[in-house]
Amino acid sequence: MGDTWLSLQLGHKKLSRCVSAACGFHNFKPEAGILNYYHLDSSLGIHVDESELDHQSPLLSFSFGQSCIFLLGGLNREHMPTPMMMHSGDIMVMSGQSRLLYHAVPRILPFPGGDMLPPCLSVPPATETSDPPLIEPCSTLDWEVCAQYLRRSRINMTVRQVLQEGCSFPQVENLSQLTEADSYHHYDGEEMGREGHDGKDVLTKRMKMTEDC
Ligand SMILES: O=C(O)CCC(=O)C(=O)O
Ligand SMILES: [Fe+2]
């Protein structure tokens, strides 16, 4: 697990608010996020996202780049999971009963056709006309760097509300004081090993709320 905290950017928050509102969650607060970087041989072991104090709000999951098999299980590890494909551009919303279900990503699948990008990523996004714009402008060079990376990788971003209504974060002067136990997303290495997958574990980066947005 990487130890760098990134800021949850304004664009992530706007997008997350839009998606959650469209699903009927009008008061969703995007307070933290996880970025998972998958190579073609990466996998993510079985787990439940229960570190957040609030489980009534949805967990939003955005996928980019290569596809994957996502296993959605039950309330215990023994429950037979349902396999589903997640493709670039898919958004999964885990809410209500599904919020605390076990899940895993056992396999990344290259987009059919080999070393290629899914069509939705093969051209830079058109300049947006909505006001305020949801998509930030991106230079051709930046786009090419991202596209090159996503030709052989999958990035998943989950966005979460951490606190229940009316609660606030404890004051931490220095982020380096945080221990692993403070992490919103903690995987038990042994548990993952028991899954018996041959691939490398996914690289994870945590994102936290910034005060300015
Ligand atoms: O990569 C995915 O689709 C799932 C990520 C996930 O389950 C998580 O970050 O908690
Ligand atoms: Fe998860």
UniProtKB/TrEMBL annotation:
<dbReference type="InterPro" id="IPR037151">
    <property type="entry name" value="AlkB-like_sf"/>
</dbReference>
<dbReference type="GO" id="GO:0046872">
    <property type="term" value="F:metal ion binding"/>
</dbReference>
<keyword id="KW-0408">Iron</keyword>
<keyword id="KW-0223">Dioxygenase</keyword>
<feature type="binding site">
    <location>
        <position position="103"/>
    </location>
    <ligand>
        <name>Fe cation</name>
    </ligand>
</feature>
<keyword id="KW-0479">Metal-binding</keyword>
<dbReference type="GO" id="GO:0140078">
    <property type="term" value="F:class I DNA-(apurinic or apyrimidinic site) endonuclease activity"/>
</dbReference>
<feature type="domain" description="Fe2OG dioxygenase">
    <location>
        <begin position="29"/>
        <end position="163"/>
    </location>
</feature>
<dbReference type="InterPro" id="IPR027450">
    <property type="entry name" value="AlkB-like"/>
</dbReference>
<feature type="binding site">
    <location>
        <position position="47"/>
    </location>
    <ligand>
        <name>Fe cation</name>
    </ligand>
</feature>
<protein>
    <submittedName>
        <fullName>AlkB, alkylation repair homolog</fullName>
        <ecNumber>4.2.99.18</ecNumber>
    </submittedName>
</protein>
<dbReference type="InterPro" id="IPR004574">
    <property type="entry name" value="Alkb"/>
</dbReference>
<dbReference type="GO" id="GO:0051213">
    <property type="term" value="F:dioxygenase activity"/>
</dbReference>
<dbReference type="Pfam" id="PF13532">
    <property type="entry name" value="2OG-FeII_Oxy_2"/>
</dbReference>
<keyword id="KW-0560">Oxidoreductase</keyword>
<dbReference type="InterPro" id="IPR005123">
    <property type="entry name" value="Oxoglu/Fe-dep_dioxygenase_dom"/>
</dbReference>
<feature type="binding site">
    <location>
        <position position="49"/>
    </location>
    <ligand>
        <name>Fe cation</name>
    </ligand>
</feature>
